[in-house]
Amino acid sequence: MARQRRHLAGLGIALLVLMAGCSGVSGTLTDGDAGSPEVTETNDLERSIEVATQGEASAEPDRATVLVAVESSADDARTVRGDLAESDDALRSALYDWGLSEDDVRTERYDIRQTRETRPDANRSEYVGVHVYAVSVDDVDAVGEVIDVAVDAGADGVQQVRFGLSDERADELRSEALGDAMDNAHAEADTLAANADLEVTGVYTVSTTNVRTSPYATTALAAEAGDAGGAPRTGIEVGDVDVTVSVRVVFGAEQA
After folding, report:
1. CA–CA distance, 142 with 27 (Å, rounded to integer)
2. Alpha-carbon 205 to chain mean position
3. Which residues are within 8 A (CB) of 178 and not within 5 positions of it... i.e. 6 or more apart?
4. CATH 3.30.110 domain span(s) along the chain
5. pTM score, two decimals?
6. Rounded Cα distance, 102 and 118, in Å
7. What angle is formed at CA 32 by the lines to CA 26 and CA 38, rounded to 5 degrees?
8. Per the CB 3.0–4.6 Å rule, which of 148, 177, 205, 218 could disulfide with 57?
9. Which example biological process does GO assign this protein (predicted)?
């Protein structure tokens, strides 16, 4: 898959710190020359440049999570529970037959409750239930097909599709973003030093202040269960996943 990498310009927190030590004067009076003390001078001048900046890396996702829901309504909670249980068996069987494992299909939310409209009425009751499944898919190109399998098996809706990264790919992208952030920090420190008649001598400290992953998410409109003649199938648009890191770097500096 194509991989993109974007560089952010160094962002605007940059601080030039100048810490100047003071010259000390100490003297000792002697009997021979009470008016002329012995003078010792010290001059300790330290300079540093502190930069806070960001780096970013982007790539196409290599995994996806599909949220599909099964819903039911009835006059009593027991009937709703039974409907959800039957739908659960059908949905899981279809997804397992397609090729997913039990670990790939987990419950995201399960809820049965009386509707707000009938709650105050003792002579009328209606219960609604929903079972939301999080279905993990390693092949992002197969997301539309998984949605169709779920809908054909009885799923009533697809709430969301989230595209993300595997742990290994996320670590690789984080390293790329950190490298980008350090490149930006060095460039910004060099610019500050040049404008302050200084020269960067090295790095004192580096800290990572924030790492943020922005997965691509989209709502999906699932196709209705198709017949033998073939119904239109579900197509999903895939976008990049972005990883952004923030670093704070303190550079040593000396007079140019």
Report:
1. 84
2. 25
3. 55, 208, 245, 247
4. 13-57+177-213+245-255
5. 0.66
6. 37
7. 20
8. 177
9. DNA damage response
Q: Which two tokens stand for residue 71?
A: 């819903």
CATH of 13-57+177-213+245-255, one of 3.30.110, 2.60.40, 1.10.10, 3.10.150: 3.30.110
CATH 3.30.70.1290 fits 63-164, yes or no: no
Q: Residues 1-44: pLDDT tens digits?
A: 444 444 433 433 344 444 434 334 344 334 444 444 343 333 33
Say if CB 92 and CB 221 are below 8 A apart: no
Residues contacting 87, CB < 8 A, separation 6+: 70, 72, 131, 154, 155
C-alpha to C-alpha distance for 109 and 90, rounded to whole angstroms: 18
Q: Are 241 and 59 in contact (CB under 8 A)?
A: yes
The segment(s) of the chain belonging to CATH 3.30.70.2970 are 63-164
Please list, in sequence order, all residues whose beta carbon lies within 8 angstroms of the beta carbon of residue 10, skipping any fewer than 6 positions away.
51, 53, 54, 184, 185, 187, 188
Place of tokens 């060095």: 186
